[in-house]
Amino acid sequence: MIPLRSLPLLILVVGIFTACQNEKKPEGTPAAAGAPAGAPKGGGSGGAGPVEGMIVKPSALNEIVTASGTLTPEEETELHPEASGRVVSLNLPEGRLVKKGQMLLKIFDEDLKTQMRKTETQLKQAEITEQRLNELLKVKGVSQQEYDLAVLQTQTLRSELDLQRINLAKTELRAPYDGIIGLRRISVGAYVNPTTAVTTIRSASALKLDFSVPEKYSQQIRIGQRLTFQVEGSKSAHQATVQATEQSISADTRNLMVRAQVNDSKGLLPGSFAEVNLTLGNRPQALMVPSQAIIPQARDKKIIVNRGGKAQFLTVKTGIRQSGMVEIIEGLNAGDTIATTGILFLRPDMPISFSKID
Fold this sequence. Notes:
Elements: H1 7-24, H2 30-33, E1 52-55, E2 58-73, E3 76-79, E4 85-90, E5 97-98, E6 103-107, H3 110-138, H4 144-169, E7 172-174, E8 179-181, E9 191-192, E10 199-202, E11 207-214, E12 226-231, E13 238-249, E14 255-262, E15 273-290, E16 294-296, E17 301-307, E18 310-322, E19 325-330, E20 337-341, E21 356-357
Parallel strand pairs: 1-21
Antiparallel strand pairs: 1-20, 2-11, 2-15, 3-10, 4-6, 4-9, 5-8, 6-7, 8-10, 11-14, 12-13, 12-15, 13-14, 15-19, 16-17, 17-18, 18-19
Helix pairs in contact: 3-4
């Protein structure tokens, strides 16, 4: 039995307890509120999204290979004297044209000239002796052996004189061909020897262009093939013709060295950097497709083709890439309709319809 005076207090406690229980209960539960808004209804399999296609048509394709090259003179020689000695005369017009055979350098040679005069005198005396002994031999005045020794002496002196003329010529340095002299590296009075670099001479007639191409293009390089190139600081294009190749692939770079003859070298300097553009493989019936239409696989590449309204995955072999397009050299035919967008939604043998065909 609860006393009447405690009844109001009991009612107050029960009311507070009931209010607390109502505050802890969420306003809505999944069972009462239902599924959240936006939740998918049902488990449908769905279908392919919008797919765009393209009809494959043959088009002309020119493969352009870009390479780095260097301009070199037709002829270039570092000049060295053949003899050792003091320089007594220099004729090295830096940056100017010289003719073949023109004297460029002279080394002191008075000692050689004196030796030559001595040998010439001895030769004259030996020739006179030979002539006298020849007359005496006719009348049996001397033996054949004495005359033979006189002839041998004459021939020996002649050989010595020829050798001295050669040594005298080595004191002169002459231009080996028509060309332009570079910067001289010595002055008059300097002592030089065959290891001393005097200057360089370069032919002024023409320039050559040396460049290298990757190994895969080595079979497409032909003698007489034309190319274009540009040099640093100039926007004009120059022409050149392939002259020769190295005939071997570099083991270090796997490139083939190519040399071309510059058709017009006016305004060009040897040693300049050149950007070479070489056109290879002119194919008028190439099949080009967008690069996004190709599906790369682990071992090959595939393209989705429409066959009777169904998606067929064909294995293809690609060739040249050019500005977002890729050449198909195997596995595709002209007139085929391929998928270019939405290919991620397609599966083999899935019905295919195109929203747009180019």
